[in-house]
Amino acid sequence: MENYTKGKNFEPSLESVGHPFSTIIGEDSLVTWMKVKAGSKIHNLMSYALNDLKTKNYIIWSGFGHAVGKVVSCAEMMKRRKKQLCQITRISYIDFEEYWDPKDEGLDQLKVVRKVPIVHILLSKLPLDPQELGYQAHDSNLFDVPKTAKKKPRARKPKIEEKEAVSEE
Has keyword Chloroplast (predicted)? Predict the structure, then answer.
C-alpha cells in the first residue's frame, strides 16, 4: 500500500439504509428513530428518547461501526428505566467503499469494500409478536438471580497458632 494514497470514501447513511421494522410497526407515526453515531453523547440521546417515549409507542435505536456498542447501551438503559418495553433486534452488515489513488503512473485505482456491522433495536410500549426473530419480552432479564436462592455462608478457616521454636542445645 506504500504506492497508494487514500482517496474518497463512500459511507452510506442510516437514512439510505433504512430500518427493518416497517413490516412490524406498519405506517405508525408514533415512532422515534434514534440514529446513533460514535461521537454521540449517551446523556443527550437518553434524555431526548425518554422525553419522546411519553408520546410515542416505538423507539428504534440504530448505529453502525463504532456506534454499535452505544446503541446496545442506550437500549438497555432505556429498558431498565421503563420496565414494560418489548424488544426486537436486527443485526446485519453494510458495505463501505474506500478508494485508493496510485502514486505512480501505470497503477490502477483500488477499490476496497469493507463490511461494517449495523444494529437496529426496536423498543415498543405495545405488545409485539413473540414469534419474531430477535424478540425479547419486557420481563426477560438473563442476569436476575432468583430471590429464593440464598447465599451460603463461607466456612471459616481455623486459626493456626504459632509456636515458638525450641532450640536443641
Answer: no
